[in-house]
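Can anyone check this?
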Amino acid sequence: MEDESYKERKVITIGVVSELTGLTERQIRYYEDRKLIFPERSARGNRKYSFADVERLIDIANKREDGVTTKEIKQEMESKSRKEDRKIRKQMLRGQINARFGVQKD
């Protein structure tokens, strides 16, 4: 899981993200306005992105090139998030049931 925390750390400036993705800073801000990415802000108000954000932006750019709208991309992201939430809740419930009834995995 250490790899995940590394990918999620918001440490990259918008200029570097622009270089890495080939997107303009304006495009990156637009995707933020559309609620497709969520950078953090430094004490001075500068946007900070993670490697996961860079990957997401590349995915967004590829989908946009294929003609997918930002609205469709957002709907897809929300659908994936709901599916992940359901999966996590199901795993938690299974764990609680197993703990309650002493069921152990082999």
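Reply from J.R.: I decoded it. The chain has five helices and three strands.
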